[in-house]
Amino acid sequence: MNKKYLIAGVLCLLLCVVFVVMLIPRKHDLHIVGGPTDTRDDDKSTVAPAVSTDPTNSTGDDTDDATVGGGTTASKEEYVSPVDFVTLKERCEDIYSWFQIPGTDISYPVVQHPTEDEHYLRLNIDGEHDTDGTLFTQHTHNGLDYSDPVTIIYGHRLRSGGMFGRLQEYYSDDETFEKYQELVIYLPDRELHYTVFAAVPYGTEHIMYKYKDFKDKSQIDKFLKEIYATKSLGTKIDRSIEVGEDDNILVLSTCLQGTNKQRYIVLAKLTEIIS
Prior knowledge:
Largest sheet: 9 strands, mixed
Order of helices and strands: HHHEEHEEEEHHEEHHEEE
Distance between the termini: 84 Å
CATH topology of the largest domain: Sortase, Chain: A
Oligomer: single chain
Number of domains: 2
């Protein structure tokens, strides 16, 4: 009987020793997934790489923020435009951007003739006579990269709703003004996102002539004051959006419904660049 107790005691002692040994931390159990020594492919996908987002950190000295995994420098993916500009330019060499109001049917190429400002007023992108015309900007007043303080895109108000035919319908109504407040310009190497802050009836005078192409920033302030002072029926202004003389502004210009003595313009400020 004493022998049985002895065997049982020895077994209990061995079990205790095994349990204690298992509690001792081993080096590979302390391994931090995603750390600089991690080389396991199955774990890499579960950890977000740490990449510096500080625009002032261009020296690469902060290795903790500028490296991924085993020290490989993170590289930014090249922007790929959703618009096939190569094919478009084969069709019309004056196409340089694409304009879209997300959620609507307004999605068209934008052209600019190098010598004639109103070349596409009655021409389509195939160079054929077409009363619908094409969305265009004027080479006299705007470049091809939307970097000017104010860029104006012109388009006809078509009864069919094509081109800028529905601008007034969308932006003179509170609900759709807010719904379609985002505008997008696609370029071959980037896309520009704008937020609409005003839509107003406007005179037939040429904005660029009136404000001297906005080369003087003070002219932008005068233009904005004129817009904010508009009291005409159908005027919509989102005063929660701050706009100043340092902002990049996009203007959509078309005819005002019911009269040939005024135009209807939609104004938006650049809020994001994706490249």
